[in-house]
Amino acid sequence: MGEKKPIKVVILCGGRGTRLVEETEYRPKPMVHIGDRPILTHIMDIYSGYGFKDFILTLGYKGAMIKDYFLNFDYYTNDFTIDLGAGKVITPHTSRHPDWRITLANTGEETLTGGRIKRIESYIEGDTFMMTYGDGVSDIDIGELLKYHRKMGKIATVTGVHPMTRFGELDIEDGLVKEFREKPQVKTGLINGGFFVFQKEVFDYLSEDGSLEREPLERLARDGELAIFRHDGFWHCMDTYRDMEQLNEIWAAGTAPWNK
């Protein structure tokens, strides 16, 4: 599976995020902030840290806000001085300039996940590409994920993760609580954590009006073409307002596992 072209990273950015309506009424979910910047850039940093810097963002709901952010990236991410008399920016005072290449693709306001991927097929140049959702962060080793995918030799690899439980977990002995853990990660059972690797053959399983998570993944599994990369480390998605608060608390404490 040698690659002649950079492996593209597709990030799904088009959903409405209805369970986070406090924020998504005004902005697309990938633009909701962790710290002083959108969760989308945290996700891009995860891939960029492993050398994957060629992104395709599938836009839908309020996609113009994502376009505006990257078109004006220096403005949104750096301090700068403007000379109003001369009508120009004199000097940026800080220097966040990641060497990313970003394709911003309109994939429809109401399109489902599989349809969004299907609609960017023409932008995939190599045999292999990666995909994730625009609302989850992890300390996953992307290099190991790709190595595992190549070793398995299947059309698709999904990352299996341990979800965060909604409730505190109690260890009980002789009627006493020996340990209390507030909303830990579940120790058993895996769920779809995103962070996929696909071969181009996956497009044969997709339609422009379908989801990824239903028929395509079910068919890939039946065909023996869906491998699973087990990740036992940190994973957290921003699904609700409380999720957003938790991720911001982790970031503010300076202990964000995904920030390597």
From the spread of the alpha carbons, the general shape counts as globular
Low-confidence stretches: none
The succession of helices and strands, N to C, reads EHEEHEHHEEEHEEHEEEEEHEEH
Question: How many domains make up the coordinates?
Answer: 1
Major sheet size, sense and barrel closure: 8 strands, mixed
Query: What is the terminal separation in angstroms?
Result: 28 Å
CATH topology: Spore Coat Polysaccharide Biosynthesis Protein SpsA, Chain A
Q: Helical region count? A: 8
Classification by helices and strands? alpha/beta
Q: Roughly how much helix do the residues carry, as a percent range? A: 25-40%
CATH architecture: Alpha-Beta Complex
CATH homology superfamily name: Spore Coat Polysaccharide Biosynthesis Protein SpsA, Chain A
Average pLDDT over all residues: 86
Overall radius of gyration: 20 Å
CATH C-level name:
Alpha Beta
Strand coverage percent: 25-35%
Count of distinct strands: 16
Which features does this protein show?
260 residues, alpha/beta, Spore Coat Polysaccharide Biosynthesis Protein SpsA, Chain A, 8-stranded mixed beta sheet, two-stranded antiparallel ribbon, 25% helix
